[in-house]
Amino acid sequence: MNPKTKEWRDGVLSVIMRDMNKNNGPYKAHHKFKWIILDGDVDPEWIESLNTVMDDNKVLTLVSQERIPLTPEMRLILEVAHLKNATPATVSRGGVLFVNDSDVGWKPFFDSWLAKYKDPKTGDTLAENAFILALSTYINDQFLDDLRHKSHIAPVCDMACVQSLTCIIDKLYQNLHTVKPQYDHLKKLREEGNEEAIKNIFDGFFIFAAMWAYGGSLDEDKLSFSNGFKSVSKIKFPDVGQCFDYYFSPIEGIWVHWENAVSPMNKDFEGLFSNLVVPTAETTRQRYLLDIHVSARKGMIYVGSAGTGKTTIIMDYFSTLDKEVMLNASINFNSFTDSKALQVVVES
Amino acid sequence: MNYLSMAQIFMGLSQTGSWGCFDEFNRISIEVLSVVSTQVKYVLDAIKEIKTNPAKSTFLFFEEEISLKVTVGFFITMNPGYAGRTELPENLKALFRSCAMVVPNIVLICENMLMSEGFATARELSKKFMCLYNLAKNLLSKQIHYDWGLRAVKSVLRQAGGLKRAEPDVAEDLILMRGLRDFNWPKIVVEDRMIFLGLIYDLFPGIQADAQVDKNLEDVCRTVTKTAGLQAEEGFILKCVQLAEILVVRHCCFIIGNPGCAKTAIWETLSKANTY
């Protein structure tokens, strides 16, 4: 975006603007709207080069003394999260559309997601009803408000939570239909017409997804979150431990401690002793969540202080993947890594 | 900007004897500025020399003999103390006389602009206008994207002028009120909405004006949203239409909001609606 100033080379923006202005390339004279969308944080370093474009001069002045005027159909749209770094000179030059969190919110997203289950052909009205009920039971305003006052290790927004919520539920739902024992169980319940039990499964899915989606990023307040969550949950948690210590078993319809899911240690491990990973309840549940997100092709972020096993868990997970299907590359970052260096690594 | 391109500018100005105005001068990095001060000094010294010795008409500018017309002049405009700006070095400051600029009396500007846009009761309206902006500045929460300065005043006035010409028979205060409300509405955050509306209704008592909405565009937006598999919520459609309204009057627009609050979806919907 920044034109290189030392020796003049056209940047992305100046090329696009010139093409729009001269109707080169993909831009045609009959186009009634030509928008340039600038997505990302505003930084005075580059935004002020646009000062002359943004005010009434409507001319982009390049360091090479070239001047590119804005034609009447051209518009600049900047999409930013905040203007903390922008100077008043910049702010006063543009119109502002402020989108409040509550203007659109996350409910439409949830509705879109639910619509999938509403579809008469492929849908599952039972699941839809169960999820709607669960949403109103667990994720109410009071809950969200409390959550906002708890301390998170990384900043989160409601939308992100809802996205992980739906992502986890989708995967659980999919597992229910693809994993043999689970599907057999579901079929049996369907044949019996035992709707209550099926609803119970979906309710469990929702609770499991919600506790990780909303509680996953908590640090010190995990305990109070867990207590609150355990008390509202319709499927009762065992009294011992936090809600995060359990996973939902659809076949039995109850909460099972992660310790029961730990796979035995690989005693015949032949690599370096330091590379040996002993599975525990913690690594098992982290792997499970990692697996959910990877199979949904979603990114994940692990935040924690040094030595908490972030790398170990992820590398251990990667080592179990099929190398033919998934490749991994670790990239170490430091303050000198720039976008170019990253691009080189990613492309290689 | 590097010192070589600055040297080019100085050479050009000195040879033609024209005046140069350097806007946002303190955005030049400090390394370049220190060279610039020497360059300015060279030209100023040469002017002095030629004035005392009229026979001479050239001077040595960085090892190049160039002609000089004594009418040459340099001016700087800048906003001190912003992020990303440097402080001018002392030796450069010494070469220019500084002059503090005072915020102009906006009421007068506003009155004149209203008059030129065709408002007959400009004096009264301009008072109300500025009263609203002053109150808004003080009473609403301090958001960094709020701007109640001269530039914002100008764009509202221009828009109000457009409204006035579109409907010359409608009462003037109604037009101005509608302009003020609809122009500022998109950027008011939820907490300030009631306060802002209260201010407007207090200043223009007894006036009820419905927002003018482009029903056609709204419907198209709704269809586009549904085809994209999204939920056509009222709030979402409203923001799309507001964006369209802003883009009519401004050629540059910020869409501000927290992550995941549908910023991208808004402009994508509108762009699809425009080409629908």
Count of alpha and pi helical runs of chain B: 11
Largest interface: A-B, 62 and 57 residues
* Amino- and carboxy-terminal Cα gap of chain A: 24 Å
Please, how many domains of chain A?
Answer: 3
Quote the CATH topology of the largest domain in chain B: Helicase, Ruva Protein, domain 3
Helix content of chain B: 55-70%
The low-pLDDT segments of chain B are none
Order of helices and strands of chain B: HEHEEEHHHHHHHHEH
What's the CATH C level of the largest domain in chain A? Mainly Alpha
The fraction of residues assigned to DSSP E strands of chain B is: 5-15%
Query: Gyration radius of chain B, to the nearest Å?
Result: 26 Å
CATH structural fold name of the largest domain in chain A:
Cyclin A, domain 1
Most strands sheet of chain B: 2 strands, parallel
Shape of chain B: elongated
Offer a quick outline of the entry.
In chain A, 45% of the residues lie in helices and 9% in strands. Chain A has helices at residues 12-22, 44-47, 51-54, 88-91, 107-118, 125-138, 141-149, 158-178, 180-192, 195-215, 222-232, 281-295, 310-319, 339-347; strands at 34-39, 59-61, 67-69, 74-80, 95-98, 246-249, 254-257.
